[in-house]
Request: fold
Amino acid sequence: MAQDFNFKPITPEIVSARTEGSGGPYCATEVGFDTLSTNPAALAFVDKEWSFARLACKVSGPLFDIPSVFQADDMTTGILDLVADNNGVYIGLNETGPIAIGKVDRNFGFGVFNRGICKVDVPSIAKATFIAGEEILLVGGYGLVLYEKGPHLISGGLQLKGFFQSFVREEGTAVAVLETFTDFDTNDLPSILSTGFGVDVGAIYRFDGNLSFAFNCKDLYTPVFSTRYANYGDFLGGDPDSDTIYTRIDPNLSIGVAYSIPLPAHWTTISGWNVMFDYRDALSSFRTIHRNPILNVATGTEIEFVDVVYFRLGVRDAYLSTGLGLDLTACKIDFAIYGTELGLEPGNRPLLNIALSAAFEY
Reply:
């Protein structure tokens, strides 16, 4: 008999080590093909770039403690020890690619991406969640200069997206979920199929080509329709055990400023220098349960050397972000290591993340 179930939708994401190195995607900047992750209004300024493929991977968790888990006599016991020592444990793998096909050009951008997800979240011994699956994301945006007079420019943008997600999920006690995770026996786990579409909007005011003020509301309206299947076999057979439920991804409003530092013409070593600041998820303060506002602050910088090497540094979630990039024209290689916060207060549940990507863009 079909029945309702509870499921919090998973926000679509394009993994990018480039943006993560300086503190995440900033809403007042354009960053080539990754502008599809920043602000549709920035498409009004972006240069032409094609993307043919991407291999981008992000791993999260107590990465330096994981070797001790594999050295334990029982992996489940090793992870439970980490739960006790670290106020919970989160281990995640996020991977975009190899499908990352699309184009950005002045005013317009589109892309098709695939993403793989695997994560286990154990906030306490009594509660844990395991989820693994795949996502297909289609994105198309348009940005247009609405006003231009002297040094003043105002652009607006709209971005539409559609996505398909298929997951297997297990919830229960830490012991039960971790046994599933370590054995990776997913055939009898409930499967979930989610489909959704969304709208992002944004605007940028730019003065003299260097100073930008912006806002971007991601998921202004993003409904998600999810159906549960008792196991993977029922999923393949199209036999659900629940009614389709309707949920929405919460809007995420960011307000930011960016400045491209003018450099002397005789500087040949440093060819670009940008500094950025964002206040993210500004609407969260109106929710009953919300994070400390300091966790919504992000600031960062990117320095470009001889048009080839990039150094990135930033702070978000009250933790440091750092990254390096190498532009080989047809292939861009980026690396980032950074911290994020899973809890509601700084230091509650810190999370270490490492991202590496190779993007074939031209």
Notes: The mean pLDDT is 91. The chain has five helices and 16 strands.
